[in-house]
Amino acid sequence: MCYTTHSLVELSNISEFILLGLSYNQNIQIFCFVFFLFCYVSILVGNLLILVSIRCSALFYQPMYYFLGHLSFMDICYTSCVTPKLIGDLLLARKTISYGNCMLQVFSLHFLGMIEIFILTVMAFDRYAAICKPLHYLLIMNRARYNLLVLAAWAGGAFHSFSQFSMIFQLPFCGPNEINHYYCDIFPLLKVACTDTYITGVLVVANSGLVALVTFVLLFGSYVVILFTLRHQSAEGRRKALSTCGSHITVVVLFFGPSIFAYLRPPTTFPEDKIFALFYTIIAPMFNPLIYTLRNTEMKSAMRKVWFQMISSEEKHN
Q1: Rounded Cα distance, 258 and 238, in Å
Q2: Residue range 195-253, pLDDT digits in tens
Q3: Of 131, 184, 196, 307, most Cβ neighbours within 10 A?
Q4: Angle between helices 99-132 and 63-80 (to 10 degrees)
Q5: 286 near 36, Cβ under 8 Å?
Q6: Smallest Cα–Cα separation from 64: which of 307, 302, 224?
Q7: Which residues, 6+ apart, have CB-to-CB distance to 57 below 8 Å?
Q8: Following DSSP, what letter does each residue of 231-280 receive, concatenated?
Q9: Is pLDDT larger for residue 47 or for residue 318?
């Protein structure tokens, strides 16, 4: 079925979408409201604490923590595209989102999500250089190089999100306008578009799904190489490297596992999509601060210093 540009404008006469949310049960919605409010506050507090601790200490000048600071910033921005509205909607009987805000949510989530994927890839490269090329590490990961890598992550996120957004923005929506999700995502929108979306769905899988899979395979391969390299290091060196790499691997699995399930498959929707989406929109950003600080003595030390500085400055003012 073919439409001209004029007919596309006429057919896209929907001004808002109705989000069906997580559940119709009132008790479940109240529980989810309390739980996700706690999760969101935890995400903000945990990631802001990491950001402040890194920025106000010498860790900011170490590549690994420089990237970790960017990851924490991305976690805050990424989850803030979804979670505040989800929490608010749990108190409403009718959950709606305007067409413009829906398109903005699609763009923002794919932009920030892809930046996060590239930042995780850069962090894996940093650990590979530190463990497998220790003598050349400072040369490989100099200040200009890791600033360039972060800039490349932002550019990659922009390229990915614009390509995804351009496909969705051109689709006509003429009814029904109910989306079986708690936020606007590409596959649920393809389901309510009033045109054949098969080709668009395949392009989305090729763009999002394959990027997630290829990146995950590269990350997995890099950690396999790192583990083999650790055999030749001292016991203390192995312990420290495994502690750092273990944190990265846990975060990668939490983020990439559900993402690959969501996008690397035939372009359709399943009831389980909403549950898996919770992992990469809320659960992973909430656990990232814990994962990166529990076994990291440098991070815990920086947090203590910042905390004591804040207390001492308060005492001086009083």
Answers
A1: 30
A2: 888 888 888 888 888 888 888 888 888 888 887 877 777 776 667 667 777 777 888 88
A3: 184
A4: 160
A5: no
A6: 302
A7: 302, 305, 306
A8: GGS-HHHHHHHHHHHHHHHHHHHHHHHHHHHHHSSSS---TTHHHHHHII
A9: 47
The residue type at 145: R
CB contact at 8 A, 104 and 82 = no
Lowest mean pLDDT among 60-74, 101-115, 269-283: 269-283
